[in-house]
Amino acid sequence: MAFPIQRLRRLRQHEGFRRMVRETRLSPADFIYPLFVVEGRNRREEIVAMPGQFRLSVDLLVKEASEIAALGIPGIILFGIPDRKDGKGTAGYDPNGIVQRAVKAVKDHVPSLMVVTDVCIDEYTDHGHCGVVKDGRILNDETLDCLRAMALTHAQAGADMVAPSDMMDGRVAAIRSELDQAGFTELPIMAYAAKFASCFYAPFRDAAFSSPQFGDRQSYQMDPANRREALREIALDVEEGADIIMVKPALPYLDIIAAAREQILLPVAAYQVSGEYSMIKAAAKAGWLDESRAMMESLLSIKRAGADLILTYFAKDAARLLH
Ligand code: PBG
Q1: Nearest protein CA to atom 11 of ligand 1, as residue
Q2: Whether residue 117 has its Cβ less than 6 Å from ligand 1
Q3: Is there a contact between 92 and 165 (Cβ–Cβ < 8 Å)?
Q4: Do the beta carbons of residue 104 and residue 157 sit within 8 Å?
Q5: What is the pLDDT of residues 16-54, one digit of tens each?
Q6: Which fold is adopted by the domain 25-322?
């Protein structure tokens, strides 16, 4: 039975019908808002390549956190920008480091907001790589010790979930055993499981001053060409004990999100990364795209592809529109 019996336009004639048959809906509960925290007091620096996003000192971060919670967004993910960097990123696992203090402050003032921490040393290393470097190579197993230490200090500071983003092999298992040994058996891990070596992280590296000082990240982040390998990465992280798996970036990798959703029973998160945000911002500023519509359409497509959670710099703007 086809045309003229079948007319799909019938249910498109009224907004009421369109709402009735809508298959995918966004909610503020879908979002996790990424935030950058810096040393000092009363600091609020706009990130040039990410208009509308700021590096905040802890005092202002706490205010921001209450606004986010009031918008119905359930969680934030924190990135630290330390004053000092070294070869092994030791500032990243200082129990009194910037992220550790930020976590404690947010949990003290806005306990209902879930605080996730990014576990990776690149923001804290002078060479900008996500691992310990020797003779120009990124060492895997040596890096695991740094990640264990970092995750543990985040847990001790009161983080609700840790999110390793380094792409070393075996890090989820290493972090799980470290947390369990220390008694944090209830603390979940959200693994950046399929993280691609993407050009779309450029504005973030500008924000966090974390560009690699030599080479690139292709020896640990994934080749954008590889779908099967992404599914292997995801399966391994599930086996190692991940509670949520993530695909990153989001929009250029919707097929990976959809495949993950089909094959994996865990919640699937997707990270709409800095470059995805900045592209829309730039096009809107030039008058070439309607910012709100481009934002909502891209978020909707990520959810339709199968993401349960979306890490997005648009979280606040989208949540406001959804209220
Ligand atoms: C690594 C990390 C990065 C992002 C999140 N965690 C940067 C990188 O891999 O270079 C990028 C996020 C974004 O672009 O918004 N700590």
Answers
A1: 201
A2: no
A3: no
A4: yes
A5: 999 999 999 999 999 999 999 999 999 999 999 999 999
A6: TIM Barrel (3.20.20)
Residue 63 has which token pair?
């205010």
Cis ω for the linkage preceding 249 (within 30 of 0): yes
Q: How far is CA 165 from CA 249, 263, 297, in A?
A: 12, 22, 26
Cβ–ligand 1 distance for 277 under 6 Å, the answer: no
Measure Cα distances from 142 to 35, 95, 168 in Å.
28, 20, 10
- Provide the H-helix boundaries in 38-170: 58-70, 98-109, 140-157
pLDDT at 1 over 90: no
Q: Which tokens sit at 217? A: 């990240």
CA separation for the pair 33, 310 (Å, rounded): 9
> Is residue 143 lining ligand 1, measured as CB closer than 6 Å?
no
Mean pLDDT of 166-183: 98
Query: pLDDT per residue over 190-207, tens digit each?
Result: 999 999 999 999 999 999
- Ligand 1 centroid–CA 249 distance in Å is 9
List, by residue number, the catalytic residues: 195, 248
The β-bridge partners of 76 are 33, 115
> What is the amino acid identity at position 190?
M
